[in-house]
Amino acid sequence: MKAFTHARVIDGKGGFIPEGTVLVEGSSIVKVGTSSEVELPEGVMTVDCGGRTLMPGLMDAHTHLETTASNNVINEVAQYNLPTRTMRSYWNSLETIRAGITTVRDVADIGDCVIAVRNVINQKLLPGPRIIASGKAINQTGGHASMSTEYQWSRPDAGGSGHCVDGEAECRRAIRTEVAAGADLIKIYVTSGLYDPFLGKPRDEFSKKEIEALCDEAANSGKKVAAHCHTAKSAKYCIENGVASIEHGMMINEETLELMKAHGTFWVPTTIVYQLMADGEKYGLGSSTIENSRKALVNQEKMFRKALEMGVKIGIGTDCGGVLINHGETARELECLNRWGMSAMDCIKAATSANAELLGIDSETGSIEAGKEADLLIVDGDPLEDIRILQNQEKILVVMRSGEYYKDMFSVQR
Protein backbone atom coordinates (compact mmCIF):
# COMPACT_ATOMS: atom_id res chain seq x y z
CA MET A 1 0.00 0.00 0.00
CA LYS A 2 1.13 3.56 -0.78
CA ALA A 3 0.07 6.77 0.93
CA PHE A 4 0.39 10.08 -0.91
CA THR A 5 0.38 12.64 1.90
CA HIS A 6 0.43 16.44 2.22
CA ALA A 7 -0.90 16.87 -1.33
CA ARG A 8 -3.05 19.55 -2.89
CA VAL A 9 -5.68 17.13 -4.18
CA ILE A 10 -7.72 18.05 -7.26
CA ASP A 11 -10.23 15.22 -7.48
CA GLY A 12 -11.30 15.67 -11.13
CA LYS A 13 -14.95 16.34 -10.27
CA GLY A 14 -14.55 19.92 -9.13
CA GLY A 15 -13.43 19.12 -5.59
CA PHE A 16 -10.25 20.32 -3.93
CA ILE A 17 -8.48 19.34 -0.70
CA PRO A 18 -5.75 21.86 0.27
CA GLU A 19 -3.83 19.25 2.28
CA GLY A 20 -4.95 15.74 1.51
CA THR A 21 -3.92 12.11 1.68
CA VAL A 22 -4.71 9.41 -0.88
CA LEU A 23 -4.21 5.72 -0.12
CA VAL A 24 -3.51 3.35 -3.01
CA GLU A 25 -3.50 -0.43 -2.76
CA GLY A 26 -2.65 -2.46 -5.83
CA SER A 27 -4.31 -0.80 -8.81
CA SER A 28 -6.99 1.06 -6.85
CA ILE A 29 -7.57 4.10 -4.69
CA VAL A 30 -8.85 2.93 -1.31
CA LYS A 31 -9.22 6.15 0.69
CA VAL A 32 -9.21 9.92 0.13
CA GLY A 33 -9.43 12.69 2.70
CA THR A 34 -7.61 15.44 4.53
CA SER A 35 -4.26 14.53 6.02
CA SER A 36 -5.76 14.83 9.49
CA GLU A 37 -8.68 12.52 8.63
CA VAL A 38 -6.87 9.64 6.95
CA GLU A 39 -5.12 7.30 9.35
CA LEU A 40 -2.06 5.68 7.83
CA PRO A 41 -1.97 1.88 8.16
CA GLU A 42 1.07 0.35 9.78
CA GLY A 43 3.86 -0.39 7.32
CA VAL A 44 2.42 1.75 4.52
CA MET A 45 4.90 3.25 2.03
CA THR A 46 4.58 7.03 2.39
CA VAL A 47 5.14 9.55 -0.39
CA ASP A 48 5.18 13.07 1.08
CA CYS A 49 4.02 15.33 -1.76
CA GLY A 50 5.18 18.42 0.11
CA GLY A 51 2.27 20.57 -1.01
CA ARG A 52 2.49 19.59 -4.66
CA THR A 53 -0.62 18.86 -6.72
CA LEU A 54 -2.06 15.35 -6.88
CA MET A 55 -4.67 14.98 -9.62
CA PRO A 56 -6.17 12.35 -11.93
CA GLY A 57 -4.36 11.37 -15.10
CA LEU A 58 -5.52 13.35 -18.11
CA MET A 59 -7.56 11.86 -20.95
CA ASP A 60 -7.61 12.79 -24.63
CA ALA A 61 -10.91 11.94 -26.32
CA HIS A 62 -9.74 12.54 -29.90
CA THR A 63 -6.43 11.00 -30.93
CA HIS A 64 -4.94 9.24 -33.95
CA LEU A 65 -2.14 7.11 -32.53
CA GLU A 66 -1.34 5.58 -35.90
CA THR A 67 -0.11 8.88 -37.33
CA THR A 68 2.19 11.71 -36.33
CA ALA A 69 1.72 15.46 -36.70
CA SER A 70 2.04 16.52 -40.33
CA ASN A 71 0.62 18.94 -42.87
CA ASN A 72 -0.19 15.90 -45.05
CA VAL A 73 -1.15 12.96 -42.85
CA ILE A 74 -2.14 10.75 -45.77
CA ASN A 75 1.27 10.94 -47.42
CA GLU A 76 2.94 10.53 -44.03
CA VAL A 77 1.07 7.31 -43.27
CA ALA A 78 1.46 5.92 -46.77
CA GLN A 79 5.21 5.59 -46.32
CA TYR A 80 4.77 2.63 -43.97
CA ASN A 81 3.34 -0.87 -44.12
CA LEU A 82 0.96 -2.18 -41.46
CA PRO A 83 3.54 -3.76 -39.11
CA THR A 84 5.58 -0.54 -39.08
CA ARG A 85 2.49 1.55 -38.45
CA THR A 86 1.50 -0.72 -35.57
CA MET A 87 4.88 -0.21 -33.92
CA ARG A 88 4.66 3.54 -34.51
CA SER A 89 1.20 3.50 -32.90
CA TYR A 90 2.68 1.88 -29.82
CA TRP A 91 5.54 4.39 -29.68
CA ASN A 92 3.02 7.24 -29.88
CA SER A 93 1.06 5.70 -27.01
CA LEU A 94 4.20 5.82 -24.86
CA GLU A 95 4.82 9.46 -25.78
CA THR A 96 1.25 10.09 -24.66
CA ILE A 97 1.41 8.49 -21.23
CA ARG A 98 4.80 10.04 -20.43
CA ALA A 99 3.10 13.43 -20.80
CA GLY A 100 0.49 12.55 -18.17
CA ILE A 101 -2.29 11.33 -20.46
CA THR A 102 -3.25 7.97 -19.00
CA THR A 103 -6.27 7.30 -21.23
CA VAL A 104 -7.00 8.03 -24.89
CA ARG A 105 -9.94 7.53 -27.20
CA ASP A 106 -8.52 6.76 -30.64
CA VAL A 107 -10.94 7.77 -33.39
CA ALA A 108 -10.00 6.48 -36.86
CA ASP A 109 -7.39 3.77 -37.09
CA ILE A 110 -6.69 3.32 -40.76
CA GLY A 111 -5.40 -0.24 -40.53
CA ASP A 112 -6.75 -1.49 -37.17
CA CYS A 113 -3.21 -1.02 -35.84
CA VAL A 114 -4.40 0.72 -32.67
CA ILE A 115 -6.78 -2.13 -31.86
CA ALA A 116 -3.73 -4.42 -31.93
CA VAL A 117 -1.81 -2.07 -29.62
CA ARG A 118 -4.79 -1.84 -27.27
CA ASN A 119 -4.97 -5.61 -27.12
CA VAL A 120 -1.33 -6.16 -26.14
CA ILE A 121 -1.56 -3.43 -23.49
CA ASN A 122 -4.77 -4.92 -22.08
CA GLN A 123 -3.13 -8.35 -22.02
CA LYS A 124 -0.26 -6.78 -20.04
CA LEU A 125 2.26 -7.90 -22.64
CA LEU A 126 3.44 -4.29 -22.96
CA PRO A 127 2.95 -1.21 -20.76
CA GLY A 128 0.93 1.71 -22.04
CA PRO A 129 -2.08 3.97 -21.59
CA ARG A 130 -5.68 2.83 -21.48
CA ILE A 131 -6.92 2.90 -25.09
CA ILE A 132 -10.54 3.10 -26.23
CA ALA A 133 -10.30 2.35 -29.96
CA SER A 134 -12.73 2.89 -32.83
CA GLY A 135 -10.87 0.85 -35.42
CA LYS A 136 -11.47 2.00 -38.98
CA ALA A 137 -13.71 5.02 -39.45
CA ILE A 138 -16.71 5.06 -41.77
CA ASN A 139 -17.16 7.62 -44.54
CA GLN A 140 -18.89 7.97 -47.87
CA THR A 141 -17.16 7.30 -51.17
CA GLY A 142 -15.24 10.45 -52.07
CA GLY A 143 -15.82 11.83 -48.58
CA HIS A 144 -13.53 13.41 -46.00
CA ALA A 145 -11.39 10.35 -45.24
CA SER A 146 -11.89 8.59 -48.55
CA MET A 147 -8.89 7.69 -50.65
CA SER A 148 -10.19 9.33 -53.83
CA THR A 149 -8.12 9.88 -56.96
CA GLU A 150 -6.44 12.89 -55.36
CA TYR A 151 -5.73 10.97 -52.14
CA GLN A 152 -4.11 7.76 -53.30
CA TRP A 153 -1.84 5.72 -51.08
CA SER A 154 1.67 5.52 -52.46
CA ARG A 155 1.98 1.80 -51.75
CA PRO A 156 -0.48 -1.08 -52.19
CA ASP A 157 0.07 -2.58 -48.72
CA ALA A 158 -0.82 0.60 -46.84
CA GLY A 159 -4.10 -0.92 -45.69
CA GLY A 160 -6.84 1.33 -47.01
CA SER A 161 -8.53 4.38 -45.58
CA GLY A 162 -11.33 2.76 -43.63
CA HIS A 163 -14.83 1.93 -44.81
CA CYS A 164 -16.07 3.86 -47.85
CA VAL A 165 -19.79 3.13 -47.94
CA ASP A 166 -22.91 4.30 -49.76
CA GLY A 167 -26.48 3.53 -48.78
CA GLU A 168 -28.02 2.19 -45.61
CA ALA A 169 -27.11 -1.47 -46.16
CA GLU A 170 -23.42 -0.71 -46.63
CA CYS A 171 -23.47 1.55 -43.56
CA ARG A 172 -24.82 -1.28 -41.43
CA ARG A 173 -22.33 -3.78 -42.83
CA ALA A 174 -19.40 -1.47 -42.01
CA ILE A 175 -20.56 -1.15 -38.40
CA ARG A 176 -20.83 -4.92 -38.08
CA THR A 177 -17.36 -5.36 -39.57
CA GLU A 178 -15.75 -3.00 -37.06
CA VAL A 179 -17.60 -4.52 -34.12
CA ALA A 180 -16.31 -7.93 -35.22
CA ALA A 181 -12.79 -6.47 -35.42
CA GLY A 182 -13.01 -5.41 -31.78
CA ALA A 183 -13.94 -1.73 -31.96
CA ASP A 184 -14.84 -0.12 -28.62
CA LEU A 185 -16.81 2.63 -30.38
CA ILE A 186 -17.73 3.73 -33.89
CA LYS A 187 -16.28 6.77 -35.66
CA ILE A 188 -18.22 8.27 -38.57
CA TYR A 189 -17.40 11.17 -40.89
CA VAL A 190 -20.65 12.94 -41.72
CA THR A 191 -19.17 16.11 -43.22
CA SER A 192 -15.99 17.06 -45.00
CA GLY A 193 -13.21 18.88 -43.17
CA LEU A 194 -11.76 22.37 -43.20
CA TYR A 195 -8.61 21.18 -44.95
CA ASP A 196 -10.08 19.23 -47.87
CA PRO A 197 -8.28 21.02 -50.72
CA PHE A 198 -10.76 20.00 -53.43
CA LEU A 199 -13.94 21.16 -51.70
CA GLY A 200 -13.22 24.75 -50.72
CA LYS A 201 -15.46 24.64 -47.65
CA PRO A 202 -17.11 21.96 -45.47
CA ARG A 203 -20.08 20.11 -46.95
CA ASP A 204 -22.63 17.64 -45.62
CA GLU A 205 -21.83 14.10 -46.76
CA PHE A 206 -23.85 11.19 -45.34
CA SER A 207 -27.60 11.53 -45.87
CA LYS A 208 -30.12 11.64 -43.04
CA LYS A 209 -31.14 8.03 -43.76
CA GLU A 210 -27.52 6.87 -43.78
CA ILE A 211 -26.85 8.59 -40.44
CA GLU A 212 -29.96 6.94 -39.00
CA ALA A 213 -28.74 3.53 -40.20
CA LEU A 214 -25.23 4.06 -38.81
CA CYS A 215 -26.46 5.14 -35.38
CA ASP A 216 -29.12 2.45 -35.19
CA GLU A 217 -26.68 -0.33 -36.05
CA ALA A 218 -24.13 0.98 -33.55
CA ALA A 219 -26.81 1.07 -30.85
CA ASN A 220 -27.79 -2.51 -31.71
CA SER A 221 -24.19 -3.49 -30.93
CA GLY A 222 -24.01 -1.39 -27.76
CA LYS A 223 -21.39 0.96 -29.22
CA LYS A 224 -21.18 4.71 -28.79
CA VAL A 225 -20.71 6.87 -31.89
CA ALA A 226 -18.29 9.77 -32.34
CA ALA A 227 -19.24 11.95 -35.31
CA HIS A 228 -16.75 14.09 -37.19
CA CYS A 229 -19.14 16.90 -38.01
CA HIS A 230 -18.80 20.58 -38.83
CA THR A 231 -22.23 21.72 -40.00
CA ALA A 232 -25.40 22.41 -38.02
CA LYS A 233 -27.53 20.37 -40.44
CA SER A 234 -25.56 17.13 -40.06
CA ALA A 235 -25.06 17.73 -36.33
CA LYS A 236 -28.84 17.85 -35.92
CA TYR A 237 -29.26 14.46 -37.60
CA CYS A 238 -26.45 12.98 -35.50
CA ILE A 239 -27.69 14.30 -32.16
CA GLU A 240 -31.28 13.25 -32.80
CA ASN A 241 -30.03 9.74 -33.58
CA GLY A 242 -28.04 9.43 -30.38
CA VAL A 243 -24.36 10.02 -31.14
CA ALA A 244 -22.23 10.33 -28.02
CA SER A 245 -20.19 13.25 -29.29
CA ILE A 246 -19.87 15.85 -32.00
CA GLU A 247 -16.22 16.19 -32.95
CA HIS A 248 -14.94 19.61 -34.05
CA GLY A 249 -18.28 21.35 -34.76
CA MET A 250 -16.77 24.46 -36.32
CA MET A 251 -19.99 25.64 -37.99
CA ILE A 252 -22.63 24.63 -35.46
CA ASN A 253 -25.17 27.12 -34.12
CA GLU A 254 -27.29 27.79 -31.03
CA GLU A 255 -29.92 25.28 -32.14
CA THR A 256 -27.15 22.66 -32.17
CA LEU A 257 -26.20 23.58 -28.61
CA GLU A 258 -29.82 23.34 -27.48
CA LEU A 259 -30.05 19.85 -28.99
CA MET A 260 -26.78 18.82 -27.32
CA LYS A 261 -28.05 20.05 -23.97
CA ALA A 262 -31.39 18.26 -24.37
CA HIS A 263 -29.84 14.95 -25.46
CA GLY A 264 -26.77 15.00 -23.19
CA THR A 265 -24.46 14.99 -26.21
CA PHE A 266 -20.82 15.89 -25.70
CA TRP A 267 -19.01 18.47 -27.80
CA VAL A 268 -15.29 17.78 -28.37
CA PRO A 269 -14.16 20.99 -30.12
CA THR A 270 -10.45 20.11 -30.70
CA THR A 271 -9.86 23.83 -31.11
CA ILE A 272 -6.07 23.66 -30.79
CA VAL A 273 -5.71 22.01 -34.19
CA TYR A 274 -7.75 24.74 -35.90
CA GLN A 275 -5.81 27.47 -34.15
CA LEU A 276 -2.66 25.92 -35.58
CA MET A 277 -4.27 25.61 -39.02
CA ALA A 278 -5.29 29.27 -38.89
CA ASP A 279 -1.59 30.05 -38.58
CA GLY A 280 -0.88 27.62 -41.38
CA GLU A 281 1.54 29.64 -43.49
CA LYS A 282 4.39 28.49 -41.27
CA TYR A 283 3.31 24.86 -41.72
CA GLY A 284 2.87 24.92 -45.48
CA LEU A 285 -0.93 24.66 -45.48
CA GLY A 286 -2.97 25.94 -48.41
CA SER A 287 -4.64 29.34 -48.43
CA SER A 288 -8.18 27.88 -48.46
CA THR A 289 -7.45 25.82 -45.33
CA ILE A 290 -6.06 28.87 -43.54
CA GLU A 291 -8.99 31.07 -44.56
CA ASN A 292 -11.58 28.42 -43.62
CA SER A 293 -9.96 27.90 -40.22
CA ARG A 294 -9.81 31.59 -39.38
CA LYS A 295 -13.45 32.15 -40.28
CA ALA A 296 -14.64 29.03 -38.49
CA LEU A 297 -12.72 29.84 -35.30
CA VAL A 298 -14.74 33.04 -34.90
CA ASN A 299 -17.95 31.00 -34.86
CA GLN A 300 -16.48 28.23 -32.72
CA GLU A 301 -15.37 30.62 -29.99
CA LYS A 302 -18.79 32.28 -29.95
CA MET A 303 -20.55 28.91 -29.73
CA PHE A 304 -18.13 27.61 -27.10
CA ARG A 305 -18.75 30.54 -24.80
CA LYS A 306 -22.49 30.02 -25.29
CA ALA A 307 -22.10 26.30 -24.57
CA LEU A 308 -20.46 27.12 -21.24
CA GLU A 309 -23.41 29.36 -20.32
CA MET A 310 -25.89 26.62 -21.26
CA GLY A 311 -24.07 23.79 -19.50
CA VAL A 312 -23.40 21.71 -22.62
CA LYS A 313 -21.13 18.76 -21.87
CA ILE A 314 -17.58 19.42 -23.09
CA GLY A 315 -14.97 16.76 -23.78
CA ILE A 316 -11.26 17.35 -24.25
CA GLY A 317 -9.61 16.12 -27.44
CA THR A 318 -6.81 17.39 -29.64
CA ASP A 319 -6.87 15.51 -32.96
CA CYS A 320 -3.23 14.73 -32.19
CA GLY A 321 -1.59 12.74 -34.94
CA GLY A 322 -3.98 14.41 -37.34
CA VAL A 323 -2.83 17.82 -38.53
CA LEU A 324 0.04 19.60 -36.76
CA ILE A 325 -0.62 18.59 -33.13
CA ASN A 326 1.80 16.12 -31.52
CA HIS A 327 1.00 13.21 -29.24
CA GLY A 328 1.26 14.16 -25.60
CA GLU A 329 0.15 17.77 -26.17
CA THR A 330 -3.36 17.44 -24.74
CA ALA A 331 -2.75 20.23 -22.23
CA ARG A 332 -2.51 22.73 -25.10
CA GLU A 333 -6.25 22.26 -25.64
CA LEU A 334 -6.84 23.11 -21.98
CA GLU A 335 -5.01 26.40 -22.46
CA CYS A 336 -7.14 27.23 -25.51
CA LEU A 337 -10.43 26.53 -23.75
CA ASN A 338 -9.30 28.35 -20.61
CA ARG A 339 -8.61 31.38 -22.79
CA TRP A 340 -12.18 31.05 -24.14
CA GLY A 341 -13.72 31.26 -20.69
CA MET A 342 -13.56 27.77 -19.18
CA SER A 343 -12.11 27.89 -15.66
CA ALA A 344 -8.95 25.93 -14.92
CA MET A 345 -10.91 23.65 -12.59
CA ASP A 346 -13.51 22.96 -15.28
CA CYS A 347 -10.76 22.33 -17.84
CA ILE A 348 -9.31 19.66 -15.57
CA LYS A 349 -12.77 18.23 -14.92
CA ALA A 350 -13.42 18.05 -18.68
CA ALA A 351 -10.11 16.25 -19.26
CA THR A 352 -10.73 13.74 -16.47
CA SER A 353 -14.17 12.85 -15.09
CA ALA A 354 -16.17 14.32 -17.99
CA ASN A 355 -14.03 12.53 -20.56
CA ALA A 356 -14.42 9.35 -18.52
CA GLU A 357 -18.20 9.72 -18.78
CA LEU A 358 -17.95 10.24 -22.53
CA LEU A 359 -15.76 7.16 -22.92
CA GLY A 360 -18.08 5.09 -20.73
CA ILE A 361 -15.42 4.35 -18.11
CA ASP A 362 -16.45 6.76 -15.35
CA SER A 363 -17.16 3.87 -12.98
CA GLU A 364 -13.50 2.84 -13.32
CA THR A 365 -11.43 6.01 -13.55
CA GLY A 366 -11.43 9.76 -14.15
CA SER A 367 -11.49 10.99 -10.56
CA ILE A 368 -9.72 10.54 -7.25
CA GLU A 369 -12.28 8.52 -5.32
CA ALA A 370 -12.20 5.31 -3.33
CA GLY A 371 -12.76 2.36 -5.63
CA LYS A 372 -11.43 4.06 -8.77
CA GLU A 373 -8.28 3.04 -10.62
CA ALA A 374 -5.15 4.81 -9.36
CA ASP A 375 -4.50 6.93 -12.47
CA LEU A 376 -2.60 9.77 -10.84
CA LEU A 377 -0.25 12.66 -11.54
CA ILE A 378 1.98 14.59 -9.16
CA VAL A 379 2.53 18.09 -10.54
CA ASP A 380 5.17 20.46 -9.22
CA GLY A 381 2.98 23.55 -9.25
CA ASP A 382 -0.63 24.67 -9.28
CA PRO A 383 -2.61 24.10 -12.51
CA LEU A 384 -5.55 25.98 -10.97
CA GLU A 385 -3.35 29.05 -10.91
CA ASP A 386 -1.87 28.49 -14.37
CA ILE A 387 -3.27 25.65 -16.51
CA ARG A 388 -0.25 25.91 -18.82
CA ILE A 389 1.92 24.16 -16.26
CA LEU A 390 0.46 20.85 -17.48
CA GLN A 391 2.26 21.42 -20.80
CA ASN A 392 5.63 21.35 -19.04
CA GLN A 393 6.63 17.70 -18.75
CA GLU A 394 9.41 18.61 -16.33
CA LYS A 395 6.70 19.72 -13.91
CA ILE A 396 4.82 16.42 -14.18
CA LEU A 397 6.91 14.46 -11.71
CA VAL A 398 4.85 11.29 -11.42
CA VAL A 399 2.58 9.47 -13.85
CA MET A 400 0.76 6.44 -12.47
CA ARG A 401 -1.74 4.27 -14.29
CA SER A 402 -3.67 1.62 -12.35
CA GLY A 403 -1.17 1.83 -9.51
CA GLU A 404 1.88 1.32 -11.75
CA TYR A 405 4.50 4.02 -12.22
CA TYR A 406 5.10 5.15 -15.80
CA LYS A 407 7.19 8.12 -14.74
CA ASP A 408 8.74 8.87 -11.37
CA MET A 409 10.87 11.99 -11.16
CA PHE A 410 9.63 12.69 -7.66
CA SER A 411 12.38 10.76 -5.91
CA VAL A 412 14.95 12.78 -7.87
CA GLN A 413 13.24 16.06 -6.94
CA ARG A 414 13.19 15.12 -3.27
Automatic annotation (TrEMBL):
Domain of life: Bacteria
Signal peptide: none
CDD domains: Met_dep_hydrolase_A
Transmembrane segments: none
Amidohydrolase-related domain residues: 53-404
Family annotation (InterPro entries): Amidohydro-rel, Metal-dep_hydrolase_composite, Metal_Hydrolase, Metallo-dep_Hydrolase, OTAase-like
UniProt GO molecular function: hydrolase activity, acting on carbon-nitrogen (but not peptide) bonds
Alphabetic keyword roster: Hydrolase
One Pfam family this sequence matches: Amidohydro_1
Heme keyword on record: no
Protein name: Amidohydrolase family protein
Organism, as annotated: Hungatella hathewayi DSM 13479
